[in-house]
Amino acid sequence: MAQLSDDCFAAGEAPMTIEEAVALVERRVCTVAGIETVPLARADGRISAVDVRTPGDLPPFDNSAVDGYAVRHAALAPDRETVLPLGGRLTAGVSAEGVLAGDTAVRIFTGAPMPRDADTVFMQEDVRAEGSRIALPPGLKPGANRRRAGEDVSRGDLVIPAGRRLRPQDLALAAATGFEGLAVRSPLRVALFSTGDELTDPGTVLRPGAIHDSNRVMLGALLRRLGVAVADLGILRDEPEPLARRLAAAAEDHDLIVTSGGVSVGEEDHVKAAVEAVGRLSFWRLAIRPGRPVAMGQIGRKPFVGLPGNPVAAYVTLLFVVRPLIARLAGQTLAPPTPQPVRAAFGYRKKPGRREYLRVSVAPGADGVVEAQKYPKDGSAALTSLTESDGLAELLDDATGVSQGDTIRFYPHALLW
Fold first, then answer.
1. How far is CA 283 from each of CA 28, 129, 194, 292, 297, rounded to the nearest angstrom?
2. Residue 349 contacts by C-beta under 8 Å, 6 or more apart in sequence?
3. Rounded to the nearest 5 degrees, what angle is found at the Cα of 274, between the Cα atoms of 270 and 276?
4. What pTM does this model have?
5. Is 174:44 a contact under the CB 8 Å cutoff?
6. What is the SS3 assignment for 296?
7. Any residues with CB less than 8 A from the CB of 39 and at least 6 apart, and which?
8. Strand partners, 211
9. What DSSP letter does each residue of 330-394 carry, written as one string?
10. What is residue 94's predicted lDDT score, i.e. its pLDDT?
11. Distance CA 380, CA 50 (A)
């Protein structure tokens, strides 16, 4: 399995934009996920490991797109009704061998192969039956209602590129072109921890000064939606030596280690020292809000990510910074998400020089145009700003604010998963 170079996450002191951070990942991180072949029924959501080219044409033969009558267009009168005798019958799944259109009309059904010489199909509702003869109206163009062999894809066409996260429609195309299984990347193995003496597992009685750990549940769910295999390894207490041992052990049999909390430089923030005891650490100062401090590093040759402890900051940095890292490690070709333009129904001021993500809800305004309303609680610890919003409004780095009526960029939550 490929591993990372020692200085993979080294970065300068100046705050980085999201684009700079993602570009650095693209330059320095390699794919580590292995390759396996799985049946189509188990391939949904997996990453295609190789380019998939079709071994044959789709459809494999010329066929009818409708129920009707197949004819040779040259046998039709151009300006008046044509009456032809019935010359055969073809249903889907049968061979057209021996069936010749010639100067006859062949009864045909959707999906049935075209008879020899036939190039056009009349829909059954457009013709008139006269016993064993069929009256065909003028004006139908040559080739109407015929699906040609290879019309969808031709032999050798690229149908699934390497790096694509497979979707149901990709699996349908693979099945239609004859594949029963596909080569995919093995799921990344991600070790997930929370850190902090104040944390306790959900469901337990809170002791004085304690809070329930919500980050591990949220981040684990997001990581699984990104297609990785998550090992929930619990809460790391603020004890440097045991913390370092747990991180080193996790690096032995996982592809990525993710923690939240404890990554600043306070006296009780021990993740930095623990990682440096068993590996290397680089602090990425990201020009974003929420989520400015993100720790990136390596334990041995395995990548480590330390996310902020505030849940909204962890959410934003995982989706905009860590997701591209996961994609790179997993062999996925990941295009940046495309925001939707919406109208701001609020005003807001911001400092230039950083990207900001506001939690917003969207709904049609009085004139029918979709507009965004900012959630009133915008602190990075306010989980309700995630549960009661529809997504994130993105304010670009050089912007100084938003005025009511401005067009802004909106990412639905589900678009980022």
1. 16, 80, 18, 10, 8
2. 400, 401
3. 120
4. 0.89
5. no
6. strand
7. 180, 181
8. 199
9. HT---PPP-PEEEEESS-EE--TTSEEEEEEEEEE-TTS-EEEEE-S---TT-THHHHT-SEEEE
10. 96
11. 40
Residue 97, phi-psi category: left (phi > 0), alpha (psi -120 to 50), beta (remainder): beta
Q: pLDDT band at residue 276, thresholds of 50, 70 and 90? A: confident
Across the range 226-240, mean pLDDT stands at 92
Which of 109-123, 148-162, 264-278 is the least confident region?
264-278
pLDDT at position 1, please?
42
Q: What is the DSSP string of 228-263?
A: -EEEEEEEE-S-HHHHHHHHHHHHHS-SEEEEES--
Q: How far apart are the C-alpha atoms of 23 and 31, rounded to whole Å? A: 15
Report how far residue 278's alpha carbon sits from residue 205's, in angstroms, rounded to the nearest whole number: 34
**Which value, to the nearest 10 degrees, does the dihedral of the CA atoms of residues 269, 271, 276, 282 take?**
-90
Tokens of 368: 């029918």
Q: Residue 2: is its pLDDT beyond 60?
A: no
Q: Which amino acid is at 414?
A: A
> Do 91 and 180 contact (CB within 8 A), yes or no?
no
User: How much is the average pLDDT of 229-254?
Assistant: 92
Hey, CA dihedral for 156, 162, 164, 166, is it positive or negative?
positive
Determine the residue type at 143: G
Confidence (pLDDT) at 338: 94
Distances 303 to 9, 281, 343 between C-alpha atoms, Å: 9, 10, 40
> Which tokens sit at 330?
């997993």
How much is the mean pLDDT over the chain? 92
Quick one: DSSP state of residue 92?
T
> Residue 183: in which H helix or E strand, if any?
strand 181-185
CA distance 178 to 60: 11
Tokens of 14: 């100046």
Return the pLDDT at 282: 79
DSSP state of 199: E
CA–CA distance from 99 to each of 60, 129, 171, 185, 204 (Å)?
18, 20, 34, 47, 76
Taking alpha carbons only, the member of 106, 70, 71 closest to residue 86 is 106
The token duo for 402 is 């938003």
Tokens representing residue 347 in the block: 């005003």
Backbone dihedral angles phi then psi of residue 351, each to the nearest 5 degrees:
-85, 135
Considering only CA atoms, give the Rg of the chain. 30
